[in-house]
């Protein structure tokens, strides 16, 4: 049928079944047992019988403890390891949150710097374009003072608008 554990369980049940029901009651009352022993003709025999039942109970308890001790011990160790791993994970998450917050700050400051550099490059490109236009106007100065004056005025207004726009930013 079963292995050694099965036969040990049957043996333990047989031994437990030999114990008087008065001793296994949920609410144990010792007075009837004491009175029985004191009024018995064979007190030594009754005491010996109680000692035998006590030995059987101790043997059953020892077997149960021996049988389940390693399982309980392993379960406690596993539970302890799981708690340790959860604690380590919680610590790792806390460190990760701090690292993410620092990364976010760095990216934000880099983004601001990049925006400033982009804005500066756009402004410089526009200034270069205006300088090219001024150079072209100076090359065609013989078209007449009026046309040159108008072109110079237009370029000046564009430069002034860029300057004001940049100040407002």
TrEMBL record:
It comes from the Eukaryota. PANTHER family: EXOCYST COMPLEX COMPONENT 4. One of its GO terms (biological process) is protein targeting to membrane. Component of the exocyst complex involved in the docking of exocytic vesicles with fusion sites on the plasma membrane. This is Exocyst complex component Sec8. InterPro entries: Sec8/EXOC4, Sec8_exocyst_N. Pfam families: Sec8_N. One of its GO terms (cellular component) is exocyst. Residues 12-140 form the Exocyst complex component Sec8 N-terminal domain. Keywords: Exocytosis, Protein transport, Transport. Belongs to the SEC8 family. It comes from Amborella trichopoda. The keyword Transport applies. The keyword Thylakoid does not apply. Signal peptide: none annotated.
């Amino acid at each position: 049928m079963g292995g050694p554990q099965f036969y040990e369980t049957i043996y333990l049940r047989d031994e437990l079944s030999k114990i008087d029901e008065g001793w296994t009651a949920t609410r144990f009352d010792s007075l009837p047992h004491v009175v029985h022993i004191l009024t018995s003709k064979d007190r030594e025999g009754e005491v010996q019988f109680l000692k035998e039942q006590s030995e059987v109970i101790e043997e059953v308890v020892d077997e149960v403890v021996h049988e389940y001790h390693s399982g309980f011990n392993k379960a406690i160790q596993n539970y302890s390891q799981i708690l340790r791993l959860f604690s380590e994970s919680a610590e790792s998450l806390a460190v990760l949150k701090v690292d993410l917050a620092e990364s976010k700050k760095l990216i934000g400051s880099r983004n601001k710097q990049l925006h400033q550099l982009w804005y500066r490059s756009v402004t410089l490109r526009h200034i270069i374009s205006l300088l090219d236009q001024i150079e072209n106007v100076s090359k065609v100065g013989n078209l007449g003072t009026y046309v040159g004056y108008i072109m110079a005025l237009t370029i000046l207004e564009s430069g002034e608008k860029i300057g004001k726009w940049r100040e407002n930013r």
